[in-house]
Amino acid sequence: xxxxxxxxxxxxxxxxxxxxxxxxxxxxxxxxxxxxxxxxxxxxxxxxxxxxxxxxxxxxxxxxxxxxxxxxxxxxxxxxxxxxxxxxxxxxxxxxxxxxxxxxxxxxxxxxxxxxxxxxxxxxxxxxxxxxxxxxxxxxxxxxxxxxxxxxxxxxxxxxxxxxxxxxxxxxxxxxxxxxxxxxxxxxxxxxxxxxxxxxxxxxxxxxxxxxxxxxxxxxxxxxxxxxxxxxxxxxxxxxxxxxxxxxxxxxxxxxxxxxxxxxxxxxxxxxxxxxxxxxxxxxx
Length: 285
Known about the structure:
Elements: H1 2-14, E1 24-28, H2 33-45, E2 50-54, H3 63-70, E3 74-78, H4 80-86, E4 94-97, E5 112-114, H5 121-130, E6 135-140, H6 142-159, E7 162-167, H7 174-181, E8 187-189, H8 202-211, E9 216-218, E10 230-234, H9 236-254, E11 267-271, H10 273-279
């Protein structure tokens, strides 16, 4: 009996460890309070088994090996780095959140869906109306945000607002596009577009806004401290609940094809009080 126990113990050391079967691999780009809020909402709705992997905890990770050996039924990827890893699989369904690269209504991979980080256009149009803006400039990449901007233009016409747009193919064209808008509009709208909002080019939006005293409305409250007058801050807990509902539809047999990318359901308008006061504007009720 003792020999048998020693043999089992030796095997547990020498053989690769196995992970108990689970349904959802939760892949985080890094440890972040915002991601925690999303997971709080997700777990409040989805009760299935999960494994959490935080990419920043590892020097490198073999995503395909994890999928091959552990067979999760779905990957929930939070953040751009997590989405980059999740894209390596072409079979396992992936739901991506908190990434600029998810732009409804479709994605470039048949096994990929998710929730974008731009609120419905109507939420931003209400901000423009509160600020009494009539001509709003937008720079975007049509391949990334063409569908969204078509929706926005239609809603803007109904709201009596003109969107003055510039399309760009890469981030090098953004500065010139912004400057070409400056004397033609009375406000700027920064979209969640990975082409026009990069670490290198984001500053240009605020330089142009400051140079021409233009109010700039952004998709994220993170930009309020550096010059945006207002933003729609997403309800991350609700986004998690939304992702849980998508997960259940996929795992119940709907498949990714029947669960296309969605816009967030809810968000809160936040403003930069000091900048609004300086510009003589307010967001109303």
